[in-house]
## 1
Amino acid sequence: QVQVVESGGGLVQPGGSLRLSCALSGSIIRINTMYWYRQAPGKERELVAFITSSGSTNYVDSVKGRFTVSKDNTKNAVYLQMNSLKPEDTAIYYCRRIGPSGASWGQGTQVTVSS
């Protein structure tokens, strides 16, 4: 069974930084495309960024230049470095994997940007 577990959320002031982690078990990062989504209160879940099995990345316009997605194949983990955080980045952040054996979601981690 493939499991996806996020960590690293918390409370941060506007302009601050956080690094989210997503650990994968039961599959290996390098054969999956890994996605970061977020869902703010009262809003639909939106795709934030993804990194393919080959390492290509893509971002939603609202986070370009501020967020960076990366992965460590040796640790079987993917990361979302979030800089210059804004109150509108407040949301539950979810990690998702899609690979040869199917798709899985994590349980999410809360990010709150507030002074």
## 2
Amino acid sequence: VQLQASGGGLVQAGGSLRLSCAASGFNFNTYIMGWYRRVPGNQRELVASIASSGRTNYADFVKGRFTVSRDNAKDTVDLQMSSLRPEDTAVYYCNAHRSGIWPGNGYWGQGTQVTVSS
């Protein structure tokens, strides 16, 4: 199983970034895909998730700014981030888990650093 995340980087506040995650080694269409983030010293937190049906779930702190999408034909999940804030600075992780399973027990990518400068 592999979850290969890409697209992180340095951006100024108010800017945009697009993260991508390419999945392989499991039946992508049967998994909920999500993006989580971790700020040093804090626990990993949900940013957004998307079921195979396309139903989405967002953390309150990104609603209206971030959009999660998936391509079930290409086994990819993206996170379009707009109106970025310095507090969005974190390592972002791609996650895959089955419905009813705690995400922490799913698959994780290696993380990609997002840094937002003020």
